[in-house]
């Protein structure tokens, strides 16, 4: 697991105040929404804001591409790394 994947897991737990979940409980390829971790649209907004604060990445609108990036910790980490590299 990469450093950013570990950071994201901790960010998910803290930003969303997940009381019964630890970073170690979140699978890197586990779905974050729906059947996986079970996050919802409000969680997505809060997570997006936390990512903006932590990594300086703005997500202007929700598109199918953005939904794909938010599918799992691994895909979100790749998105962040790509955005940081483009800056």
Explain how this protein is built.
With 87 residues, this protein is mainly alpha-helical. The protein has one domain (3-86): Orthogonal Bundle (Non-ribosomal Peptide Synthetase Peptidyl Carrier Protein, Chain A), CATH 1.10.1200.10. 55% of the residues lie in helices and 0% in strands. The protein contains four helices and no strands. The chain has helices at residues 3-15, 41-55, 64-69, 73-86. Helix 1 crosses helix 4 (73-86). The protein is globular. The termini are far apart.
Keywords:
single chain; 87 residues; mainly alpha; Non-ribosomal Peptide Synthetase Peptidyl Carrier Protein, Chain A; 4 helices; 55% helix; 0% strand
């Amino acid at each position: 697991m990469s450093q950013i994947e570990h950071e994201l897991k901790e960010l998910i737990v803290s930003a969303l105040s997940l009381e019964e979940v630890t970073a170690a409980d979140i699978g890197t390829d586990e779905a974050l929404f729906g059947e996986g971790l079970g996050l919802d649209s409000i969680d997505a907004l809060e997570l997006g804001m936390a990512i903006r604060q932590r990594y300086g990445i703005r997500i202007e609108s929700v598109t199918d591409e953005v939904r794909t990036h938010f599918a799992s910790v691994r895909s979100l980490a790749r998105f962040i790394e790509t955005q940081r590299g483009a800056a």
